[in-house]
Every structure is written in structure tokens, then in C-alpha cells.
Request: fold
Amino acid sequence: IGDLVCTTGAFGYTSAALDIILKEKKSSKIFSKKSKDLFFRPNPRLKFGIKSINHITSCMDSSDGLSSCLNEMSRQSKKKFMITKYPTNEDVIEFSKRNKINFKKLVLDGGEEFELVFTIPPKNLTKILRIARESNIKIFQIGHVTKGNGVVFDNDKESFRIKDKGWEHFR
Reply:
């Protein structure tokens, strides 16, 4: 309880890549290349994970989608995950608006990002940010762990339960 919830990178690009490839959605050449590169050439954060192992309290890769990952971490820890920010960049938001795609679905349910989702005590944030800088990785601080169960998004604009809608094996 009190730990911060963070990710090693932005979400939504791999879902956008599939929409560009399979559904012929419109995007700039730069966004298309970035999304497709992240989809076809994922960059698992192994070095960051190894270097940060003594500073984190839990960690999971997000290959099945952020919503699945957060819900699994909440279930395993028997704690509530309060998410207050989307771990994404402005170009993903613009892509979703341009193509009238559900932004939350792109970011929360896509999968194939291979980013790390982890929790850390607030006192370790500076150390984690240093390790990330040395590894050329952007950290998104997206929420915190509290008493209770489940995953809830809550900021000053909206509040909802994040359901597990990512990839489920043997469905």
C-alpha cells in the first residue's frame, strides 16, 4: 500500500500498428513507421528489469495488454490499483481522434507492447528514474497501490473500473 505504479514506455502504438495494417487506418508516415517498428521489432526491457530488481516490489511484462497486466498484479497482491494517468503520448491520442478509434481500448487493451509494468516504493523513484535515464527509457508514473481490490482509473475528468480485456489464452 502506497507504492507507485509505473510503466517503462508508452502504450497504444502496437494496437495502432495493427489498425494501420489490417484496417487501413490513416496516420502520418512518422507515426506509422514508429508504430510498426514497435510492433515488428519489440524491445523487451531486460536490462532495465535486471538493474532495477532491488528497487521494485512487483513487476510484469505487458505483452497481453495493460488492462490484463494491471488486473493480474492487483489479484496477485490482493490490493487495489488506482490509475490516474494513461501511459501514452500525444501522437497516439491524435491517431485515435483522427480515425475515431476508442483511445482507451488502444492504450489499455492492445497488448504486444512488451513494456514492464511495476510497483515501487516512492522512496525508490529517484533511483528508478536514474536507471531509466541510463537505459534511455521513459518512465510513466500512472498511479498507486491502495487498500482494496481491482483496478480503477480515477482522475479529475473520469472514473471507471478497468476490466481485464487484453489477450486471454485458451478463450
Q: What stands out?
A: The first strand starts at residue 4 and ends at 7. DSSP finds seven helices and seven strands in the chain.
